[in-house]
C-alpha cells in the first residue's frame, strides 16, 4: 500500500523517462532526376523474368525424334481349338522337349517365308485346317499338326495376324519354339514378291523387335539349316530336315536393308 503521493509520482516520472519513442517514417528518396523512389520493402515473391528481346529468340527445346507410325495389323485368326493345342503339345514333346506341356513360346527370332501361291484367302484356309495333308509325306511323317504361321502378308502389303505371337506355329524345323513366322503371299516365279511386301515385312520386323526386345535374329526360311548347331536350333529327330528356297536371297536383302539399324543377326556364316 502506498502511504502518500510521492512514490506514485516517482514511478510515473521513471516510466516516462525510459520510454523509447518510435522512429519517424523515412522521408521519400529523390533520384537525381527528381523522381520519387518508393520506400516500400522489397517484394519477397517470385520475380517475373524480363521480356526477351525479340531480335534474339529463345532456342527451341530439345526434342526426341517422333516414334515410327504404328503398324496396321488385321486380326484374322485361324482355328486354334483344344484339339490343335493338344497336337501342338504332342509335336513339341516329339521334336523339342519330352516334358513340354504348353504352347507358349518366347520369341528370339523372326523367319520370313513365301506361300508358294498367289492367294491370301487360299493360304488362310489351308492354315486353318488342324491336320497336315497326307500328301506332304516328309512333314506328315513328323506329326499330324498342320503348318501355319503367326503372320500372313498379302501382295498389297496388308498384314494379317493369324495367331498370337507367343503361341507356337509349325513353320520351320528346329526353330518353331523360338521363332515368329511371317508368310508372304507369292513365290519365285508366277507371283514374285512385291515391294509392298518388302515394306510391310520391314515394318512388322520393327514392330516385333519393339514388342519382344529379346529377338536377336532375322532369317529367311531358305537359311534355316545354317542355324543347326546354334543354341536356338532344337530338333530331336536327326533325320527330320527339309530343303527350302523361300523367300529367297533377293527378298531378304531388301528387307534387311530397311531394318539394318536394328542390328539383327542372320544365319551363322559357315
SSE layout and pairings?
Elements: H1 5-18, E1 29-30, E2 36-37, E3 73-75, H2 82-95, E4 109-114, H3 120-128, H4 137-141, E5 151-153, E6 159-161, E7 179-184, H5 195-211, E8 217-220, H6 249-258
Parallel strand pairs: 3-6, 4-7, 4-8, 5-7
Antiparallel strand pairs: 1-2, 5-6
Helix pairs in contact: 5-6
Description:
There is one protein chain. This protein has 270 residues and is α/β, with parallel strands linked by helices. Helices cover 26% and strands 11% of the residues. The protein is built from 6 helices and 8 strands. It has helices spanning 5-18, 82-95, 120-128, 137-141, 195-211, 249-258; strands at 29-30, 36-37, 73-75, 109-114, 151-153, 159-161, 179-184, 217-220. A 6-stranded mixed beta sheet has the order 3-6-5-7-4-8, sandwiched between helices. Helix 5 (195-211) crosses helix 6 (249-258). The longest helix is centred in the C-terminal third of the chain and has 17 residues, at 195-211. The N and C termini lie far apart (120 Å). Mean pLDDT is 84; it is low at 1-50.
Keyword list:
two-stranded antiparallel ribbon; 270 residues; 6-stranded mixed beta sheet; 6 helices; alpha/beta
Please provide the ordered H/E string of secondary-structure elements. Answer: HEEEHEHHEEEHEH
Distance between the termini: 120 Å
Structural class: alpha/beta
Radius of gyration: 40 Å
Instruction: Please list the strands of the largest sheet in the order they lie side by side.
Output: 3-6-5-7-4-8
Tally of individual helices: 6
Specify the helix fraction band: 25-40%
Shape: globular
Largest sheet descriptor? 6 strands, mixed
| Overall strand count | 8
| Range of strand content | 5-15%
Give the integer mean of the pLDDT values.
84
Please mark out the parts with pLDDT under 50 across 5 or more consecutive residues, or reply none.
1-50
Amino acid at each position: 500500500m502506498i502511504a502518500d503521493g510521492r512514490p506514485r509520482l516517482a514511478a510515473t516520472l521513471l516510466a516516462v523517462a525510459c520510454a523509447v519513442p518510435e522512429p519517424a517514417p523515412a522521408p521519400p528518396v529523390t533520384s537525381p532526376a527528381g523522381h520519387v523512389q518508393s520506400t516500400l520493402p522489397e517484394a519477397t515473391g517470385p520475380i517475373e523474368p524480363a521480356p526477351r528481346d525479340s531480335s534474339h529468340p529463345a532456342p527451341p527445346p530439345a526434342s526426341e525424334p517422333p516414334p515410327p507410325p504404328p503398324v496396321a495389323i488385321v486380326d484374322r485368326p485361324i482355328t486354334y481349338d483344344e484339339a490343335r493345342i493338344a497336337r501342338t503339345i504332342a509335336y513339341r514333346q516329339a521334336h523339342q522337349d519330352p516334358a513340354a506341356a504348353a504352347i507358349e513360346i518366347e520369341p528370339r527370332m523372326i523367319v520370313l517365308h513365301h506361300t508358294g501361291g498367289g492367294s491370301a484367302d487360299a493360304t488362310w484356309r489351308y492354315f486353318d485346317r488342324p491336320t497336315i495333308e497326307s500328301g506332304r509325306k516328309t512333314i506328315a511323317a513328323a506329326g499330324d499338326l498342320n503348318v501355319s504361321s503367326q503372320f500372313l502378308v498379302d501382295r498389297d502389303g496388308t498384314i494379317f495376324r493369324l495367331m498370337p505371337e507367343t503361341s507356337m506355329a509349325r513353320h520351320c524345323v528346329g526353330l518353331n519354339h523360338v521363332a515368329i513366322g511371317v508368310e508372304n503371299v507369292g513365290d519365285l516365279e508366277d507371283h514374285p514378291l512385291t515391294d509392298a511386301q518388302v515394306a510391310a515385312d520391314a515394318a512388322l520386323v520393327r514392330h516385333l523387335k519393339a514388342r519382344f526386345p529379346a529377338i536377336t535374329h532375322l532369317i529367311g526360311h531358305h537359311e534355316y539349316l545354317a542355324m543347326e548347331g546354334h543354341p536356338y536350333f532344337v530338333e530331336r529327330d536327326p533325320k527330320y530336315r527339309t530343303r527350302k528356297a523361300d523367300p529367297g536371297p533377293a527378298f531378304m536383302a531388301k528387307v534387311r536393308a530397311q531394318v539394318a539399324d536394328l542390328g539383327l543377326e542372320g544365319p551363322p556364316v559357315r
